[in-house]
Structure formats: structure tokens, C-alpha cells
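We emphasize that the prediction below concerns an isolated chain of 172 residues; any contacts that depend on oligomerization or on bound cofactors are therefore not represented. The input was used exactly as deposited, without trimming of termini.
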Amino acid sequence: MSIFTAIDFETADYGRDSACAVGLARVENGKIVRTAHRLIRPPRREIIFTYIHEITWEQVEGEPLFGEVWPGLAPFFGGIEFIVAHNAPFDKGVLNACCAAAGLQPPPQPFVCTVKLSKLELGLKPATLAHVAHHLSIPLNHHNALSDAEACAKIMIAVEQVRADKAAAGLN
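Result of the prediction step, given as a C-alpha cell string:
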């Protein structure tokens, strides 16, 4: 079993640098061992996506900027093999943009996408987070960054179990 961290961002607007919440779930030996959830003050006051994630400016105006939040999150990435996200190009883009805006280096580990793995390894279509979570009986409070990150971590755990079962049966 791999050591990895699942990440999920909620954004305020169309800018990739507009993270307003992040959820993290670190997995070791097939189990979530640590989680974190942080609200983040985005760089602009207008929050376009409140209708999706229910985060308002009033909730985040007193929160720290990404650069101030990062030191508390960085340990989630120490010693991991990869970072996993559901629709990884989105979350990777947000992480990279937020790090760039704060003058920080993003973690060097590669991103793995559970949307792709849900289709390829689990044979699920559609491969939306809600659909995959429902199929795997994973509780989900969709668009809550921590709940989404935990669901993503559990999907990756399920993918690794499917791979292990196939290997044990000599199907790889």
C-alpha cells in the first residue's frame, strides 16, 4: 500500500489562485491517518461559487492567506509517494497557482487522478465524485473540502485494493 495525501480545494472565483478552502487526508498502510481542513482568505473579495460550496466572504475575510496556511499543511506532503485528487488537473492547478502567488514551491510529488482511476480500475461511469462515492458506500458532504478529500483518499484505497486483488489472482 502506498503513502499518499489526498487534496481538495474549493475556489472563490475562476482564478486558480482563489482557494478559499482546502481539505487534506494522509493515507498510510491503507488507512487515513491524519486530516486537515482550513478556510483560506482568497486574494479577491468576490466569491462567485458560494452557491456550490456555501463559503461566503464573511466566513473567510478574517482567515489567513494561502501563504500563511501552507506551513501547517506542508507536513502532509513529507515522505509521500504521490498526491491524489478527484479531477487532479484542477487541484494541481490550484495548488501550483496558490504556491506561485505566495512565492512557495509546490510539493514535488506527482498527482494521480481518481476520476481516471475510477474509470480504468473500477469501471465506473460516470466517474463524478458523488457517483463513485455512492457506488463505494463512502459518506460524502460534497463540496466540503475535507469530506471531498477523505472520499478521494478512500477511492484511492479502493483502487489499490482492486490492484492488490488482481495481482494476488495473477491477473496483472
